[in-house]
Structures are given as C-alpha cells and as structure tokens.
C-alpha cells in the first residue's frame, strides 16, 4: 500500500486490527440474540445494516460515495453491488441460524468456507500442520451438535458460503489501501440496506416506538457491521488473503467465549478441545515471507501470489 494512504493506521500491526474485528464480530450478534425476544430476527438484521449504513453516510458523506461509485469501472461497480447483496444475505442467514443454534456452533460452521481459502495459500509443512489443527478443531465444534435443528444447520452452512464470498470480495475492494476500501465498504453497505429492506423493515417496526430497543439495534450495528468491517478492511489491505483466511480460525473460539460470557452457553469438553485445536492452528501458522515476493508487485498481485491462484467468485 502506498505510504501516503497508510497514515496513522499503517503504524498499527494488521494483526491488531484483525483481533479487534474478531472480538466485535460476535459480540454484536450476542447482543442481537438478546433482542430477538422483542424484535423479529430479520428485523434485528435490518436494524444492524440500517444503522451501519447511517454511520457510514455520516462519516464518509453520501455525495462523496456516489461520486466514487460513478467513477469506478463497471468491473469494480459489479464487485461493490455483489458485496452489498452478500452482506445482506449473510447477515440474514447468520441471525436466522443463531436464533436456532448456539453462537459457537454457527461460528465454527462459518469458518469452514474461509479455511478453504487458507488451504489455497498453503506452501509449507508448518502451514499444513496449522490447517490440520484448525480442521480438527472445527470438526469437533460442529460434530457435537449434528442433530435437532436441520434448518438451523442449513442456514449456518449458507452463511458459511456467503462469508467466504465476503472474504474474497472484501479483499478485492481493499486492494489499494484502507481509506479507499472503507469508502467502497460504505457503498456496499447502502446496497445491503436496499437489499434487506423488503424482508426486514416490517420486522424492525416495533423498535421504532421503543427508544431503548432502537438504541440497542444501533449498538448491534456498530458492534457488528461498523467496527469489524472497518478493521477487516485495514487488516485485508496489508495481510495476504491466505493469512487472513487462516486467522479467521480464531472466530469460532471468539464465538464460543462470547457465548459463555454474554449468553451463558457453556461448551462441552469436546467443544473446548475444538477451540484449543483452533488456537494451536493459529499459533503454528506462518505467513509467506515477503522477501520471496517481487517488490514491484501491486497489493492485488501479492494477494494472488500468497493464495497461489485467483479464486473465482461464483
């Protein structure tokens, strides 16, 4: 990333941004579960996306974002539109899943897609061992709860596929730096709001007459769609896609821990062992040496070099 685009954010290690994202990625949904008693599941998803879109509008300015969108080539516009639709569908499937299954289980299933992206970038025996640990941990977390909620698992696996698309599309809009990526994320969030409004607005209506519920919905949006997505962009701009994808193995562990602290969903021994294996996978993993990459390559080329080959978007 060019030095002038990094600014103060470039002085902070990208892994710090990822850790912030990992915590808030499930802290917001944990609070959302508590809202389900008062607002419908899709209504909470609408509040999350609408509040995030409003914050991006106030922060990045709608006119500025529209001019940016108008200047983009069609290929980039198509990516932004696709990302917006993916964000809306992903949030809807995720909330519908955590309304039926424990947060830690959905978080584990969500990781199965990104681990495939990490596998595409494996180049060493150490990283293969890291993937073995991560896969074993995810298997333990998911295998212990394979009965009772077929619709919940179907929604969780749909969310998994959409989350994998989010990682791919998110890296595409983050290619030339944190600030530009955040602006594009703001555009995608408006597209997400337009996408989810037909199915979520009616369910959010009860919150409009209860200020505390509305404030809680805004808090969910900040915790779920502003802080983690912005820090994702700042991390994606400086981490190879394969490295970022394998670091996502922290998410099931974060989901399990937050499920315990906020929702009192106590894991079994097998689930706790799965979390431990995932943490081992993250500890063993090492990202590719930058010395092996030509200095003249663009960020996009560095990502594709790390991932061995480009991954097509279905």
3D architecture notes:
This protein is mainly alpha-helical and 314 residues long. The protein has one domain. Helix content is 76%, strand content 0%. It is built from 14 helices and no strands. Helix 3 (41-60) runs antiparallel to helix 5 (74-98), helix 3 runs antiparallel to helix 9 (178-204) and helix 5 packs antiparallel against helix 8. It is globular.
Summarize the structure.
With 314 residues, the protein is an all-alpha fold. It has 14 helices and no strands.
Q: What kind of assembly state do the chains in view correspond to?
A: single chain
Beta-strand segment tally: 0
The percent range for strand residues is under 5%
Helix-strand makeup class: mainly alpha
* CA radius of gyration: 19 Å
Instruction: Please estimate the helix content.
Output: over 70%
Distance between the termini: 28 Å
- What is the N-to-C succession of helices and strands? HHHHHHHHHHHHHH
Annotate the secondary structure layout.
Elements: H1 3-6, H2 14-35, H3 41-60, H4 62-71, H5 74-98, H6 103-120, H7 125-143, H8 150-173, H9 178-204, H10 211-236, H11 241-247, H12 250-263, H13 269-284, H14 299-306
Helix pairs in contact: 2-10, 2-12, 3-5, 3-9, 3-10, 4-9, 5-8, 5-9, 6-7, 6-8, 6-11, 6-12, 7-13, 9-10, 12-13
Descriptive key words:
globular; disordered N terminus; 14 helices; 0% strand; mainly alpha
């Amino acid at each position: 990333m060019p030095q002038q685009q990094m600014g103060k954010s470039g002085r902070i290690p990208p892994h710090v941004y990822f850790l912030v994202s990992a915590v808030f990625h499930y802290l917001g949904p944990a609070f959302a579960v508590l809202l389900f008693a008062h607002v419908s599941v899709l209504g909470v998803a609408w509040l999350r996306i609408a509040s995030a879109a409003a914050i991006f509008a106030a922060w990045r300015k709608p006119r500025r974002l529209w001019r940016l969108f108008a200047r983009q080539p069609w290929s980039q516009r198509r990516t932004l539109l696709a990302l917006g639709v993916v964000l809306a569908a992903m949030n809807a499937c995720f909330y519908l899943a955590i309304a039926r299954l424990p947060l830690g289980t959905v978080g584990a299933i969500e990781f199965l897609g990104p681990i495939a992206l990490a596998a595409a970038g494996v180049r060493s025996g150490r990283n293969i061992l890291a993937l073995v640990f991560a896969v074993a941990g995810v298997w333990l977390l998911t295998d212990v709860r394979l009965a009772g909620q077929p619709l919940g698992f179907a929604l969780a696996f749909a969310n998994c596929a959409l989350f994998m698309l989010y990682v791919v599309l998110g890296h595409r809009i983050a290619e030339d730096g944190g600030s530009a990526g955040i602006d594009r994320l703001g555009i995608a969030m408006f597209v997400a709001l337009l996408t989810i409004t037909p199915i979520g607005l009616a369910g959010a209506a009860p919150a409009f007459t209860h200020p505390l519920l509305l404030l809680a919905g805004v808090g969910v949006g900040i915790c779920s769609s502003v802080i983690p997505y912005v820090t994702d962009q700042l991390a994606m701009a400086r981490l190879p896609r394969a490295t970022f994808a394998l670091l996502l193995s922290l998410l099931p562990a974060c989901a399990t821990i937050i499920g315990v602290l906020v929702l009192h969903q106590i894991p079994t021994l097998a689930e706790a062992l799965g979390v431990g294996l995932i943490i081992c996978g993250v500890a063993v993993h090492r990202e590719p040496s930058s010395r092996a990459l030509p200095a003249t390559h663009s960020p996009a080329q560095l990502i594709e070099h790390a991932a061995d080959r480009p991954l097509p978007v279905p």
